[in-house]
User: Which sequence fits this backbone?
């Protein structure tokens, strides 16, 4: 995947999940020097096909109330966990009410700062159980500058067995 990493794109992923590192490196490999990659450069089917069930693409929508994020594509694993396909819906329409502001701010920081964001949180599933997930959100920009899509990878973190 090579290429020099621009310091402004550098992101510490050494301690993260293997697939988070893979997607991050793939995203970096697509970025033109000093710019963000765009949706046109992204080809996860060729680049990382095994990650497709855990990927989501969110359109960035700038409205009166600030940034909102509408699901463009939802991977199958996520659809199964959520119990419905969120494609076409805004994240603030299906995220639990007490988590909406935090989730929206995490995605907004990706757009505002033009930088990746990785965090771990619980996801409420159809079986009304919590599943621990680690998420990597990456900005994509059609013009290489202003993010208009957020690419996110969700990795299920299994509890340790005792």
Assistant:
């Amino acid at each position: 995947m090579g290429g020099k990493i621009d310091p402004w794109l550098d992101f510490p992923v050494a301690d993260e999940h293997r697939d988070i590192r893979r997607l991050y490196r793939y995203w970096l490999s697509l970025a033109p020097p000093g710019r963000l990659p765009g949706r046109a450069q992204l080809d996860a089917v060729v680049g990382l096909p095994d990650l497709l069930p855990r990927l989501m693409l969110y359109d960035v929508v700038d409205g009166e109330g600030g940034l909102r994020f509408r699901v463009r594509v939802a991977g199958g694993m996520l659809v199964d966990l959520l119990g419905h396909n969120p494609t076409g819906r805004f994240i603030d329409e299906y995220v639990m009410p007490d988590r909406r502001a935090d989730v929206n701010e995490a995605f907004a920081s990706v757009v505002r700062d033009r930088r990746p964001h990785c965090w771990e949180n619980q996801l409420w599933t159809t079986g009304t159980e919590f599943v621990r997930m680690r998420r990597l959100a990456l900005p994509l920009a059609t013009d290489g500058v202003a993010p208009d899509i957020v690419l996110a990878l969700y990795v299920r973190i299994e509890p340790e067995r005792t």
Summary: Residues 1-8 have pLDDT under 50 and may be disordered.
